[in-house]
Design goal:
This protein is an alpha+beta fold and 206 residues long. The chain has a single domain, classed as Aminopeptidase (3-Layer(aba) Sandwich). The protein is built from eight helices and nine strands. Strands 1, 2, 3, 4, 5 and 6 form a six-stranded antiparallel sheet that branches. 31% of the residues lie in helices and 24% in strands. Pfam families: Acetyltransf_3. One of its GO terms (molecular function) is acyltransferase activity, transferring groups other than amino-acyl groups. This is GNAT family N-acetyltransferase. It comes from Humisphaera borealis.
């Protein structure tokens, strides 16, 4: 059953930092940095849907999820979630040869249980822009939010990926994910409509 939203409370997670990587709450001051990552030539080539993200769409997201916090919607079967942007901190704490981006990607942490979360979307959802790949940012970002999942009482979580996404599969396995099955995404689901027809399901004990 979905989590009762009237009882849900977001928690103060403090700073989420792993060397040069910091998970930050989405805010207007970083819109230009996010758009720069979306317009990067490698993003345009390899992530065309993200490359088309507009300023208006980002502002709408910020209005619906202030500071990246989405309260959920029982009527739509959507659980509450935290959203983060993967910020790269350059300088003394940063890499010697940083990628030409300030925002390396994004991470969503879904709190609660529903068929959609456990079968298709997962409790963790992430993406890393092509120019920032190869530095285990997704793995490190997921590791940073494990205490947040525990704080909400989640001990077993589900993470999914497309069967052909080998990089995501490796990330999940390094997090301790155990493969359970591959399921078909229902026709009409937003994932299906954007071409994601199957999901591999992994169980992780937090």
């Amino acid at each position: 059953m979905p989590l009762l939203l009237r009882r849900f409370q977001f928690v103060d997670h403090g700073s989420l930092v792993d060397r040069e990587l910091e998970l930050v709450q989405p805010q207007k001051r970083w819109i230009d940095d996010l758009l720069a990552s979306c317009r990067d030539s490698m993003t345009v080539t390899h992530m065309p849907r993200e490359a088309r993200l507009s300023r208006d769409e980002i502002q709408q997201f910020l209005a619906e999820s202030p500071l990246g916090r989405y309260s959920g919607d029982d009527a739509l079967g959507r659980v509450p979630a935290y959203h983060f942007w993967m910020m790269l901190r350059h300088g003394a704490a940063g890499p010697t040869s940083p990628p030409p981006l300030r925002i390396a990607g994004g991470l969503s942490v879904r709190i609660g249980h529903s068929p959609a979360v456990e079968l298709y979307y997962g409790h963790l959802g992430y993406h890393v822009f092509p120019a920032a790949r190869g530095r285990q940012y997704a793995l490190r970002a997921c590791g940073l939010v494990m205490p947040l999942l525990k704080a909400h009482g989640l001990r077993t979580i589900w993470v999914t990926c497309d069967p052909q996404n080998m990089a995501s599969r490796r990330t999940i396995e390094r997090l301790g994910g155990q493969y359970v099955e591959t399921v078909e995404v229902p026709m009409g689901d937003p994932l299906y409509l954007r071409g994601e027809t199957h999901k591999q399901r992994y169980r992780i004990e937090v």
